[in-house]
Specification:
α18 (591-598) crosses α19 (600-609), α21 packs parallel to α23 (703-716) and α23 runs antiparallel to α24. β31 (754-761) and β32 form a beta hairpin. The strands form ten sheets. Strands 10, 11, 12, 13, 14, 15 and 18 form a seven-stranded mixed β-sheet that branches. It is globular, with a radius of gyration of 35 Å. The protein starts with a helix and ends with a strand. The mean pLDDT is 90. The protein is an alpha+beta fold. The chain has 26 helices and 34 strands.
Length: 815
């Protein structure tokens, strides 16, 4: 008999909605638990990746409800951004119309999957009641010098007159009009996240509940490194190229310099009035290379697989300050101004990237660290760079030193000679937030010829997106200056959507609060987030920006927490035929197709059973069917037990089943705490098998068995909530199971489990029985006398005495 999932799921979804079952209550007597998954971009349809993320979070939230926590489990929509704007253009509609239609569709799908959200706390970032506070936070940063403007390079399509995200540049061309994309310098807004670099790095030590992999990714992104700034003079020109290196021990082996094509010093070298006696003899080739590089994205330029290209500034040389060597200068696309100083010293004997570049352009290679394991007599024998530790050679007075000691000695010497300086560098750069597009938070700044940059007053927030006119229309742009009342104009840039997601979790604590971005006392109660769940692809930027915003808001005195997320779980991707699901690969499985055939609970069970949360999950139709069959097995047990009055059956079987039940409760509880949902489900399946194995239909009429099925339903309810709600009611319990007490195991049933008791007759071994450790002594004696083999041995004899050696043996003395 199969269960009618469609009727059951619709019934309980309506029940949860009508009764507001999952509404969070401020300041309950229960301990609080804030469970959050990274909110979605409203693309219109949930995909399997969404389902996996939300199903994992839903199990955590439902489990905590049943453990009697006061749970906050909200949801919202990260609704601004380029995809909605592009979709609106394609469909000839307004971005707001498109976005809200997608939100309605996704909201329906989330309800269909039974996710336990407090829908009253829903946040939509394109709502002016939300982005007003983006603007408010921006203004607080502007007041403190953390928001500023400077020129920066962007992907620019002259045909569309807009900037493009990196993923919208395809083979150097605009995705929409196929026009050549170039790198263009525009005045851009930045947030000075670098002011928080040390706190962002140091406070990673507080995040004991984060995956070490993510901690390492954040550390690498911040990129703190101790090293030396080295000053290379340009021959014949009053210019210095500053290079930062962590390998000052290799400075004597630097045989050329590489500059980023956009390095500002290049314009000075090219200027004939400043060039002195040096001239770039291949100026046309250099200019052509610079223009070519402008059409490459940063991702293309830094691709490790891509062959490195460059061009020499012929006729221009730098001087190695430690030995006076005259070395060539190259431009190369793999060097970016955003990293380091935009210039590197190249040591091809001891850096593989430099080695490959030097081989390609036939540049000098000089060994300055000798490999003590394998002696190289000359550079012609080198097949790759030696990047390990060794002994200094060809390094002047530092020859013979261990290279790690040489790092210290060379750095001291360079400081004394004023040709270098020990310093600390960070990879982290300030955050560019300007977007030259419509669908985003307007930047609340006005420009006046007299007053300069003028912030919009708090009382005039929000600066709303115009809906009936173009963003650049006079009705929106032309405004009086807030200070002098002269003619002025608005900033037409909008904010990067990462701004929206950098503090949304705080808004969930008080989404209707209108006197600030959030109500301080409610945030104090709910924060920090106890469990955050999302994809590994957000391990760097989103999490870093959220940590930055939290620290800034703490500095304002608005929050008490130092870090926003106590524990972090990053779930793996969903695959089909070994590849990540995507429309371009044609391997997408629509969750709706599974739900319509098997129900939401079957899909949830498959998602949670098929792999640990952190691992990749391979979609498998047969596994879906297996999940469906298992739910029907449980359903049939509950159906058989729902209409019968229970009577005690064989006591030995009762004890064995109790032992298995309590062992399963313990196992599942431990697994839930560690997010091992797949092994928890496996343990529940084993319990169901034991129930079927040990009892016939007739002997199902026992209290222990009914309790076992009751426990199965409780343990499964966070995973497959709809069918469990129905079975809970069938078993005579009061709904909802969603907030029922989680079962508690008794250690006594688990500690020593079942003992084997030897039975002797007049001191001779005649049989064995198994019995629970807590069975009373008199009960053990009765079990021994009733044993089938013992009955044969004592037939016709009188039992004089029954002697029990506790937990070991029973000796029947006869006459």
């Amino acid at each position: 008999m199969t269960y009618n999932f469609k009727v059951i799921e619709e019934k309980w979804q309506k029940y949860w909605q009508d009764n507001q079952t999952f509404r969070a209550i401020q300041k309950s007597d229960k301990p609080k638990f804030y469970c959050l998954e990274m909110f979605p971009y409203p693309s219109g349809k949930l995909h399997m990746g969404h389902v996996r993320n939300y199903a994992i979070a839903d199990v955590v939230a439902r489990y905590k409800w049943m453990r009697q926590f006061n749970v906050l489990h909200p949801i919202g929509f990260d609704a601004f951004g380029q995809p909605a704007e592009n979709a609106a253009i394609k469909n000839k509609s307004q971005p707001s119309t498109w976005t809200y239609a997608c939100i309605d569709l996704m909201r329906q799908e989330m309800r269909k999957l039974g996710f336990s959200y407090d829908w009253q706390r829903e946040v939509v970032t394109c709502d002016a009641n939300y982005y007003k506070w983006n603007q408010w936070i921006f203004l607080r940063m502007f007041e403190r010098g953390l928001a500023y403007k400077k020129p920066a390079s962007v992907n620019w399509c002259s045909s569309c007159a807009t900037t493009l995200a990196n993923e919208e540049v395809i083979s150097g061309k605009c995705w929409r009009c196929d026009n050549e994309v170039e790198q263009k310098e525009l005045e851009q807004w930045f947030l000075k996240i670098t002011e928080y670099k040390d706190r962002l790095l140091e406070d990673l030590k507080l995040l004991k509940g984060w995956p070490q992999r993510v901690i390492a990714m954040q550390e690498n992104w911040i990129g703190k490194s101790q090293g030396v700034e080295i000053y290379f003079k340009i021959e014949g020109v009053d210019e210095i190229i500053t290079v930062f290196t962590t390998r000052v021990d290799t400075i004597f082996g630097a045989t050329y310099i590489v500059l980023a094509p956009e390095h500002p010093i290049i314009s000075n070298i090219k200027n004939p009035c400043l060039a002195g006696r040096q001239e770039i003899s291949n100026i046309k080739e250099v200019d052509k290379y610079i223009q070519k590089t402008k059409k490459e994205s940063k991702e293309e330029r830094t691709d490790l697989v891509k062959e490195k290209t460059g061009v020499q500034l012929k006729g221009v040389f730098a001087i190695n300050p430690v030995n006076g060597d005259r070395i060539p200068i190259y431009l190369a696309d793999y060097v970016l101004m955003e990293y380091g100083t935009g210039a590197i010293m190249a040591v091809p004997a001891h850096d593989q990237r430099d080695f490959l570049f030097a081989k390609k352009y036939k540049l000098s290679i000089k060994i300055v660290i000798r490999n003590t394991q394998y002696a190289i007599r000359n550079t012609e024998e080198l097949t790759e760079a030696f990047e390990g530790d060794g002994i200094q050679v060809n390094s002047g007075q530092f020859d013979g030193l261990d290279n790690n000691k040489a790092k210290v000695e060379i750095a001291k010497w360079m400081e004394e000679k004023k040709i270098g300086k020990r310093t600390t560098h960070y990879r982290l750069r300030d955050w560019l937030i300007s977007r030259q597009r419509y669908w985003g938070t307007p930047i609340p700044i006005i420009y006046c010829q007299k007053c300069g940059i003028v912030p919009v007053a708090d009382s005039d927030l929000p600066v709303r997106l115009p809906e009936k006119v173009k963003f650049s229309a006079k009705e929106f742009v032309d405004v009086p200056c807030p200070k002098c009342k002269a003619k002025a104009h608005r900033d037409t840039d909008t904010m990067a959507t990462f701004i929206d997601s950098s503090w949304y979790f705080l808004r969930f604590c008080s989404p209707c609060f209108d006197k600030g971005p959030f109500e301080k006392e409610e945030v104090k109660y709910w924060m920090p987030i106890d469990q955050y769940i999302g994809g590994i692809e957000h391990a760097i930027l989103h999490l870093l920006y959220s940590r930055f915003f939290t620290k800034f808001l703490k500095d304002l005195g608005l929050v008490d927490t130092v870090e926003p997320f106590n524990r972090l779980l990053t779930q793996g991707m969903v695959l089909k035929d070994g590849a990540v699901m995507s429309k371009s690969k044609g391997n997408v499985i629509d969750p709706d197709s599974v739900i319509s055939k098997y129900g939401a609970d079957t899909l949830r069970l498959f998602i949670l059973f098929s792999a640990p949360p952190e691992a990749e999950l391979e979609y498998n139709e047969r596994a879906i069917e297996g999940s469906w069959r298992f739910l029907n097995r449980v359903w049939n047990l509950a159906t058989q037990l729902s209409d019968v009055s229970c009577q005690m059956s064989d006591k030995k079987q009762n004890i064995e089943l109790q032992r298995i039940v309590h062992r399963t409760i313990k196992k599942v509880t431990q697994d839930f705490e560690e997010f091992k949902f797949n092994t928890a489900i496996s343990a529940i399946m084993e319990l169901v098998n034991e129930i079927y194995k040990k009892f016939t239909i007739n002997s199902l009429q026992c209290t222990v068995c009914k309790e076992a099925v009751r426990v199965v339903v409780l343990l499964l309810s966070p995973i497959v909530p709809h069918i469990c709600e129905e079975m809970w009611q069938m078993l005579g319990e009061k709904p909802p199971i969603s907030t029922a007490n989680w079962p508690v195991f008794e250690e006594a049933f688990i500690k020593t489990e079942i003992l084997t008791i030897i039975i002797q007759i007049d001191g001779k071994l005649r049989s064995k029985i198994e019995a629970g450790v807590n069975i009373p002594d008199e009960e053990i004696k009765k079990m021994a006398l009733n044993d089938e083999k013992i009955q044969k041995w004592i037939a016709g004899k009188r039992v004089k005495e029954v002697i029990l050696v506790k937990h070991k043996l029973v000796n029947v003395v006869t006459q």
